[in-house]
Amino acid sequence: MAAADLSRLIEATANTIAAHAEELTRLDQAIGDGDHGLNMKRGFEAVRAEAGAFSAKPLPEALKAIGTKLVMTVGGASGPLFGTLFMALGKEIPAAPDRADLAAAFGKAIEAVAARGKSQAGQKTMLDVLQPVHEALLQGKTAADIVEIADNAADATVPMKALRGRASFLGDRSIGHMDAGARSTALLVRAVAEAIERRA
Ligand code: ADP
Ligand code: MG
After folding, report:
1. 26 phi-psi bin (left φ>0, alpha ψ -120 to 50, beta other)
2. Are 177 and 158 contacting, i.e. CB atoms less than 8 angstroms apart?
């Protein structure tokens, strides 16, 4: 991937997190501790601040470095999990991935997140968006379809009962609210899919 492309992806993700930080905070206030918006904003602004250096690296090294930066800056439960997602993606992806490479690497990265979080889809977390996005990638869905699938998957966490993370402390009272990490994941998927589409 060209440096300019990676740099635009970094800008797009940081922009969407900044634009939705208050919404993410509100979601986390309802069934968590209300720090998710600030956590994500801090992390993605830290990545944006070093976008030039990250973009100069080959894609695998760039993703690993971004993941490491996210672990160091996001904090909370989500920092190590998003960090793991990017680090594992960097470990698995070739320098010039085709669609099948991306789908395969994304699958491995999700496994790494699930191992780190001792979690799986169906527990009202970011994995409830990551998993359907992976399936859509495997099925060769269009970027527009993948964006819609991610949004619908985040919406589908509303009626779920949280079984992992802080929201799980609320038991049945976690039902009726969208998971903050599922929402931030859907926002990232949209930003990346739309930035890649614009280039194609
Ligand atoms: P914290 O919960 O420590 O305050 P954040 O608010 O930044 O951290 O992140 C919360 C989000 O992290 C949740 O909405 C959920 O999507 C995700 N999350 C928390 N624990 C897990 C886990 N064990 N596996 C997967 N995702 C998780
Ligand atoms: Mg929180």
Report:
1. alpha
2. yes
Asked whether 128 and 157 are in contact (CB, 8 A), the reply is yes
Per residue in 122-178, pLDDT (tens digit) is 999 999 999 999 999 999 999 999 999 999 999 999 999 999 999 999 999 999 999
Q: What is the amino acid identity at position 74?
A: V
User: In this predicted model, what pLDDT tens digit does every residue of 73-100 receive, in sequence order?
Assistant: 999 999 999 999 999 999 999 999 999 9
Any atom of ligand 1 within 6 Å of the Cβ of 42: no
- DSSP-assigned letter for residue 161: P
110: its two tokens: 């999700």
83 lines ligand 1 (CB under 6 A): no
Q: Which domains does the chain have, with CATH numbers?
A: 3-199 (1.25.40.340)
Residue 72: name the closest of 50, 98, 100 by CA. 50
For residue 180, the ligand closest to its alpha carbon is: 1
Could you tell me the two tokens for 105?
């690497």
pTM confidence score? 0.97
3-state percent helix, strand, coil for the chain, nearest multiple of 5? 75, 0, 25
- C-alpha 70/C-alpha 75 separation (Å) is 8
Residues 188, 47 contacting (CB under 8 angstroms): no
- For tokens 């699938």, what's the residue? 149
